[in-house]
Automatic annotation (TrEMBL):
Gene name of this polypeptide: apbC
Function as written in the Swiss-Prot or TrEMBL entry: Binds and transfers iron-sulfur (Fe-S) clusters to target apoproteins. Can hydrolyze ATP.
Name the UniProt record assigns to this protein: Iron-sulfur cluster carrier protein
Binding site for ATP: G105, K106, G107, G108, V109, G110, K111, S112
Subunit annotation: Homodimer.
Keywords for this protein: ATP-binding, Hydrolase, Iron, Iron-sulfur, Metal-binding, Nucleotide-binding
Family from the record: Belongs to the Mrp/NBP35 ATP-binding proteins family.
Alphabetical list of Pfam families matching this protein: ParA
Keyword Zinc among UniProt keywords: no
Provenance organism: Pseudoalteromonas haloplanktis
Domain of life: Bacteria
GO molecular function: 4 iron, 4 sulfur cluster binding; ATP binding; ATP hydrolysis activity; ATP-dependent FeS chaperone activity; metal ion binding
């Protein structure tokens, strides 16, 4: 513990106690603390207040009030923490740093809802984000982002312009081809359309591009996942046995094509009773956890079955953008964990992901 006198005995701020305190901070996303490398600047405001500026290598801005509180308690002075997000890695595809596939073994588990809210949360965490709807069986991203009726625009008859949905760049396979007859799709055709959308959309600079994949683990999904230079995939499942069995096939498929599985998201995990606040495990309990343990992947989030998720979706609004909604915090925590997993996957060999209750 460092007292005031020690911290401010010299004219300039003594950085070491602050560096040590940052290193001791722990959360699911900062499972190994906040590294010295992330510090951009430390300024002394008054003799009892400092500002720490961080340069985060992954999207996790909304955690800064917690970091500030932790430092304030530990250092016994007022600490204000600000952060901006600058991913260190080089772009892997055009000017896109990470492409993240959101997949599911089975349809109707909430994959698109999860994909779009993860995109929204990553944006809210300070990143430049895009979403590509590649779900040939039912492209729903335009509806979820309130873009129904919009027509794609090209620039100089070459590049497709992505739509701007509240700061998220969006493109959908549904704009390219009519979706009424999904049976016409074959692997090469679907992967060709996906490559075309990836290549011909003017994405600009992106930190994360989320790809909403078609559900299933067949030939089409396999061919499509081979076409995309993805950094990793997130598999969405419900706790039901059938969905879990299909999620397991999904893990096997991504292992086969060497796309790292970043983790599972258990959607419709439980239902919080409006009256007593108790969690009911409508579709079963601990299923995703067991599957995750078996395959050595983490469960990134347990998202409840919640009426406001469905209602927001139907209105073309992102619940992740509604800071008053409890559920937006759940999506934010999942997004920070996805972002930090991508970072640590490249910068540390392996770390244990600590899942906390928040
Ligand atoms: P998928 O992409 O897997 O086919 P969707 O994202 O389209 O699934 O979701 C299917 C339906 O379930 C939609 O009506 C959506 O609003 C609803 N839904 C998804 N996740 C939740 C949730 N956690 N709570 C309540 N409804 C949800």
């Amino acid at each position: 513990m460092f007292g005031l006198s020690k911290l401010f005995s010299a004219k300039s701020v003594q950085k070491q106690p602050i560096i040590s305190a940052l290193a001791a901070y722990r959360s699911a996303a900062f499972a190994v603390g906040i590294e010295q490398d992330f510090i951009a600047d430390i300024t002394q405001n008054t003799d009892k207040s400092i500002t720490v500026k961080l340069n985060l290598p992954f999207a996790a801005q909304s955690e800064m009030p917690h970091v500030a509180q932790f430092l304030t308690e530990r250092l016994k002075i007022d600490v204000n923490v600000t952060a901006s997000v600058h991913l260190k890695e080089a772009a892997k595809f055009k000017a896109i740093k990470h492409i993240v596939l959101v997949a599911s073994g089975k349809g109707g588990v909430g994959k698109s809802t999860t994909a779009v809210n993860l995109a929204g949360s990553l944006k809210n965490e300070g990143a430049k984000v895009g979403i590509l709807d590649a779900d040939i069986y039912g492209p729903s991203i335009p509806m979820l982002l309130g873009l129904v009726g919009s027509e794609p625009v090209t620039k100089d008859n070459k590049q497709l312009q992505p739509f701007d949905a509240n700061g998220i760049k969006a493109q959908s396979i549904g704009f390219l081809v009519p979706s009424d007859d999904a049976t016409v799709w074959r692997g090469p055709m679907a992967s060709g359309a996906l490559s075309q959308l990836l290549n011909e959309t003017d994405w600009g600079e992106l930190d994360y591009l989320i790809v909403d994949m078609p559900p299933g683990t067949g030939d089409i999904q396999l061919t499509m996942s081979q076409k995309v230079p993805a950094s990793g995939t997130v598999i969405v499942t419900t706790p039901q046995d059938l969905a879990l069995a299909d999620a397991q096939k999904g893990i096997a498929m991504f292992n086969k094509v060497n796309v790292p599985v970043l983790g599972l998201i258990e959607n419709m995990s439980h239902y919080i009773c409006e009256h007593c606040g108790e969690a009911n495990h409508v579709f079963g309990k601990d299923g995703a956890q067991k599957l995750a343990l078996k395959h050595g992947v983490p469960v990134l989030s347990h998202i409840p079955l919640a009426i406001d998720i469905r209602e927001s979706s139907e209105q073309g609004k992102l619940i992740a953008d509604d800071t008053d909604a409890v559920i937006s915090k759940t999506y934010s925590a999942a997004a920070r964990l996805v972002a930090s997993t991508l970072y640590y996957q490249q910068h540390h060999n392996a770390i244990d992901v600590v899942i906390t209750e928040d």
